[in-house]
From TrEMBL:
It comes from Limihaloglobus sulfuriphilus. GO terms for cellular component: plasma membrane; type II protein secretion system complex. NCBIfam families: IV_pilin_GFxxxE. This is Type II secretion system protein J. It holds the Pfam family T2SSJ.
Length: 244
């Protein structure tokens, strides 16, 4: 019997094929890693850029709710709208404003009117912020926070019946400007103005250098951005519509 030649081919992979496959997988893995790394860096950059703005936004939102519902003087529950400003040097300011607003929303079960008196001003963090001792900040450095002081009981003769809350931390400047219908002014005296309330209020914040360095990695002396928003007082707009 003549012998048969086995022509069956081994279907396994050769070493060369395995090396090519591994090389292709390596290229794909490297491309995926590069894409993920670039996306991660982009996210970190975006978060760093938006960090200061996110710090300021709650303060803008709270002030907006109070300012747009500011009330004209008159009656038991509405007093004068007053605003002053002090210079802190280097184009930095410390403003103070006091007015009555109908924008307060009492919590469930709270016995309070929606009309309250609010004050906004800068305060020393070590005086107003109990948690500031937890921060890695030298005590001799001035750390400012934005304080919102609200008086709920407007009928009380006790001037000490108020509540203070911290609206924003890490500030270097808090500036307010008021529009009287002709120009922007840095203070508001109701007795010296022709109208009881400004038509609009412009709010500007500057974060301190420590906050900027922490959130953006900026050098201490680089430009400090100013975050500004303008709010129109609805009471004035409504009164103008009635006159027209």
């Amino acid at each position: 019997m003549s012998g048969k030649i086995n022509t069956t081919r081994n279907t396994g992979f050769t070493l060369l094929e395995l090396m090519v496959a591994l090389a292709i997988m390596g290229v794909i893995a490297l491309s995926m890693y590069s894409s993920i790394f670039i996306a991660s860096r982009a996210k970190d950059t975006t978060d760093a850029a938006l960090g200061p703005y996110n710090t300021i936004m709650p303060a803008f939102d709270m002030m907006r709710n109070d300012i747009i519902a500011a009330m004209s003087p008159g009656g038991l529950f509405a007093g004068y709208f007053t605003g002053t400003e002090e210079s802190a040097g280097d184009d930095l300011y410390s403003s103070y404003v006091s007015f009555y607003t109908a924008g307060f929303r009492p919590s469930a079960g709270e016995k309070a009117s929606n009309i309250i008196r609010v004050e906004y001003f800068l305060g020393d963090a070590f005086e107003y912020d109990d948690k500031y001792s937890l921060y890695d900040i030298q005590e001799e450095s001035e750390q400012l926070v934005l304080i919102r002081r609200k008086t709920l009981n407007l009928l009380s003769t006790d001037s000490g019946l108020y509540e203070d809350e911290i609206v924003c931390r890490g500030l270097a400047s808090f500036a307010l400007e008021y529009y009287d219908g002709y120009s922007w002014v840095s203070s508001w005296d109701p007795e010296a103005s022709d109208i009881p309330l400004p038509m609009a209020v412009r709010v500007s914040f500057v974060l301190n250098e420590d906050c900027l360095k922490t959130q953006q990695g900026r050098a201490a002396k680089e430009d400090m951005p100013v975050y500004t928003k303008t709010f129109v007082i609805n009471t004035i707009a409504a009164e103008q519509e009635v006159r027209e």
